[in-house]
Amino acid sequence: MNKTLLKVFEVYVFVFAFLFASKPPNDADVWFHLNTGEYIVQHGIIPRTEFSSFTHFGAPFIAHGWLSGLIFYLLFKYFGLYALTFVTALAGAFAFWILFRHSRSHPFIAGFITLLGVWAAVLAIGVRPRVFTLLLATIFLVALRNYARSGEGKAVWWLAPLMTLWVNLHGGYLLGFALIGFTIMGIPLDAWAVGKRFRDYWPRMRTLVLVLLACGLFGLINPYGLTMYTFPLRVLSSPVFQEGVIDWLSPNFHLPQLRPLLVLIVCTVVVLAASPKRARPSELLLLAASVYSMLMTNRQMLLFVLVAVPLLSEHLHHLVSMTSFGARFDRPPAPAGSMRSKVIAVLLLLPLAVFGLRLRATVYGPVRQELLNVPVNAVQYMRENQVTGNTFTEPNVWGAFVSWSLRSNPVYIDGRDVYPPDFVQEYIRIIRGQIDWRQPFDRYGVQLALIRPGTVLARELTEAGWPKLYEDNMAVLFRNPAH
Fold this sequence. Notes:
Strand content: under 5%
Radius of gyration: 25 Å
Helix content: 55-70%
Distance between the termini: 74 Å
């Protein structure tokens, strides 16, 4: 293949990665990040206390993704809601583009495996700060892998200032420390595997230890100091998050959406077993750790994908090279072809316009509550009819949308990790019908309830004489008859 057509293929990889990563802003977390960003702009300070609920107003609050919230709000303010979709999809596509460009395999193999990785990770990609963790984790992985193999280059020192950015963008920055730690542990394993002396690899380990310490110091450059380090650990150990939040549960491979991830797992295992070249012990160590973390929680499927994609690409290349067909993959690309090949390349790019139109009609279409997965119509009714008061929502993440859309309606809970575990557990028991809702509603002064129709709570509120103010196929709005 000549270089012109190869460039066209590279464009295809990036564009299709962008298409896969383009999702409507239907993750309810986006609304409390917008809330945080607006608060920062309006008050000129980063919030340290809870400001949007009536149940825990004034409680200590760590806005660990405050910088993401600020970015999201500024994008929304000046460019509209779908600017968030575009920027996060671009960040996701760029992360996988980095993997593709640094793959040690033929571009065809690397391109298709990269797109399989994007497909496998699509559930974890969206309009949320996690996309910044995806991008920064990719940069860390590539820089650490290159340094561990060669011991050369100053790029690894850039990880320290990048940690400052990561700490302020998303709580997933702990992953950066873990990646450095696993790289340090992997270096002596690689030395042992090839029969080399440990002291020959000690300078690399020493450098990475210093980089790890530098990252720890640079990470302290945040509004909350050391608290920013302890807060994610408290969330990770919370039984409420481990048992009640889908992101923290183990992946359910019965779901069709997770089949690409299952394909990636199987392909990685099979190809590594069949590859004529043995994987490095450090690579297997990181792969095993990523598999374990992925099986423990949905949130870590991104880590597994980032680790598996370059490993699968490289060893699939070795496997294909053993075949008679593989000789073609080892040939260097031919020089740019004639005008005819360039015209063909341009024609091959034209179908991308079709995908762009499809994207415009689906992801970037008119704002609908079915697209955003929040009760847009009910909230519009509340705004037009000036229905105000302390609002209980179910699911809890609807609270963030209500708080963002209606400043006159403080909410019971909104999906953030600011609420005490006992309070969250009580909320879960209320919506499951396991306890009587009357006592907590009276305790906190609930005036409105915006919940899904057909639920246990909706039936009980109806039986208790709470009048319905509004109802559609997504939400039903009740008013407390005592208010």
